[in-house]
Amino acid sequence: MPPLREEEDIRDFPMLGPVETQVIQFFVDGVKVLGLPRSIGEIYGLLFISPQPLALDDLVVRLGISKGSASQGLRALRELGAVREIEVENSRRVHFQADMELKRLVGGFIREQVRPHLESGTSKVQLLEGLASQEPDGERREFYDARVTQLKHWIGRGKFVLPLLQKVLGQ
């Protein structure tokens, strides 16, 4: 799909076909599971199924999303390593293409989403530990202590497994 020219009207641009629609929905479902915005799945899905790199304006028109949403989605996808900028001959606009390397996608997600959550979780668990120890009801304090211990265990396992996963993926 060639980039949108200034004189083209949105009505002249073809609608999404059934394959494009299903691929986009596949990625929308995937980002929902990860707690990411729908627009990120839509953008990545369209870039994934597009034979040519697309510019920001192309994404806005084809997906029917705002320029701000497209811009934020592209920024997030770049930070995750899921898209890359491509130079297109005779065009001053920046174009984007989906990165197809699974290790980059997973590695970027771990780096940008999971690791920060684990790091903040450590300090939150320390706070919980202090709060639980101040519980006046002995039975309830024991219950809270057990739950906080479980959270500490999960965070420890996560910190152990993530580097191994990144190593397996070549990150």
Automatic annotation (TrEMBL):
InterPro entries: HTH-GbsR_regulator (IPR052362), WH-like_DNA-bd_sf (IPR036388), WH_DNA-bd_sf (IPR036390). The keyword Lipid metabolism does not apply. GO terms for molecular function: DNA binding. Keywords: DNA-binding, Transcription, Transcription regulation. This is Transcriptional regulator. It comes from Luteolibacter luteus.
